[in-house]
Design a protein that fits this description.
4-stranded mixed β-sheet, 13 strands, 2 domains, alpha+beta, homodimer, 60s Ribosomal Protein L30, Chain: A, Phosphoribosyl-aminoimidazole Synthetase, Chain A, domain 2
Chain lengths: 341, 341
Amino acid sequence: MSRTELNQLGEFALIEHLTHEIVIHNDETLLGIGDDAAIIENTSACTLVSTDLLIEGIHFDLMYHPLKHLGYKAVIVNLSDIIAMNAIPKQITVSIAVSNRFSIEALEELYKGIKLACDTYKIDLIGGDTSSSHKGLIISITAIGVQQKEKIVKRSGAKIGDYIYVSGDLGGAYLGLQLLEREKKIYIENPGVQPKLDENRGIIEKFLKPEIRKDIITMLDHAKIIPTSMIDISDGLSSDLIHICRQSNVGASIEEANVPIDQEAQLMALEFHLDPITCALSGGEDYELLFTISPSDHEKIKQLPSFYYIGEIVSPESGVKLKTSKGNLHEITAQGWKHFN
Amino acid sequence: MSRTELNQLGEFALIEHLTHEIVIHNDETLLGIGDDAAIIENTSACTLVSTDLLIEGIHFDLMYHPLKHLGYKAVIVNLSDIIAMNAIPKQITVSIAVSNRFSIEALEELYKGIKLACDTYKIDLIGGDTSSSHKGLIISITAIGVQQKEKIVKRSGAKIGDYIYVSGDLGGAYLGLQLLEREKKIYIENPGVQPKLDENRGIIEKFLKPEIRKDIITMLDHAKIIPTSMIDISDGLSSDLIHICRQSNVGASIEEANVPIDQEAQLMALEFHLDPITCALSGGEDYELLFTISPSDHEKIKQLPSFYYIGEIVSPESGVKLKTSKGNLHEITAQGWKHFN
């Protein structure tokens, strides 16, 4: 593969080069890249904004994260925050800073992934910034979405008696990461050994190339269900449930037997001598949705596929608890990613 | 001064610590920090979005850029892009990544500057992200503004015959930077020597703590003038005029004698053996506005203070030219910041 150095293009030419194939999908996007600011016309609804900063070596490892997948995932992670408000993501801005270790071709790969996510979910790339860095790759994305005010769902609306649901299997991304880390270690020690990853495509893909659950938002909308609270599972079910409980000033009781665990993850957990339920509770990065609904919506939701009832919202004094299959009660504690530790 | 290490707080606690004094100024901001996304209600106007990534050692030097000033400037640079669309900035998100070289107290200083800019210009800090970095300080800001569709001004609307204006003196920020760089060099060679900066507070402040020209937007609005095109002078008058000409498919003719040069900058240029007009044309970072108006608005604008007429929009074939005081014509070329060179 050929290698073109970054300094062969200026800053403006580089942006132009990376974004010239961008297509605008949404009528609300009146102006995209190329002016001082982009213009969005959401005159019949609210605008939602979320932002994330991803740093090489902190949030991702290029040794096993192909650049195209990374571009895709960086977009997904941000769109997921808009989805978690029960809103429809519509636009993103993407800023990157790169050291001269990266070639133009490497950045083209990154942007291929960004474009793929945009095309898959009809998202407009409307702005950004490109700069050099002293070390590694830095990606900053802001996602923008739209929703009618009365349909927006915050973390703070859960009420005692509400049912708690998740949108899919948990633990996959976490065990995908564990597997990649193990194979990386083996590869570093014995560069001749090819990593064995084929049998575990599911969990590896869940980690490297997650998707947003836009289908869930659409399904709930069609069923006329507005969750009382919602969050996307990025830090882990435990951490994210605690976020909802704290901001809603309630407690929660979760049934261990009801927590949906990814089958492949379950087998891999045993291989790693890890407890599958712990992986599902604390793993994170699955980008499934965790939400609560009013008991009055229970009949409606039972008609729908792909929702997992895992427990109930209880009084704040009862705390956030896991009821094991044997009937024991354990307090759930947050064990999300802590970047500063 | 005491020093508290970053790892004494977790990520969520750090965000909480840095942002707990944040006040919401605008009714359109329905929800700020603390959920998956912020909520903005701009239902009678368009939403404008602009973003910037600032990297230590590339965009700023902490040796002479105090953290409070840096926080202030980082916000201003982004708000200025919204102003340049003839729009009113209303919200920002701020993401930072820092190495463990920085203490909590250092970040508090940075956020003091961010808050000061927000309070001065009635901006709501509605979201962000905090992470560790391997090296130095990284700041990513997204600015969001509002304006009625028919009042938004792009770069692309300049017409042949339009008058070209700037909103204030140029060259100050550039010479402020030159002076700081010189004194830094002297200080590194002789750490005992105190830098002499008092006499040149004006240009140093112009570089370290610029302001947005929100007053200009208000003034134009009151006078019922909508510029045909506009840009903020961040790369330098030459570069930014070329942006307007390219995107409007026109040429421009600028009178050297009419380009307003900062008085302090003029004296300092001579001390540095630099040509003052070159500094004013290519300096950049003054964050004044460069705009064009239709000849039919000329009578109205003549009534207003603080606008400088510098030339006219001409046919694209005539190119972008500077007419010197002696009557010679020079082609204007872009000499903005090129981070990759």
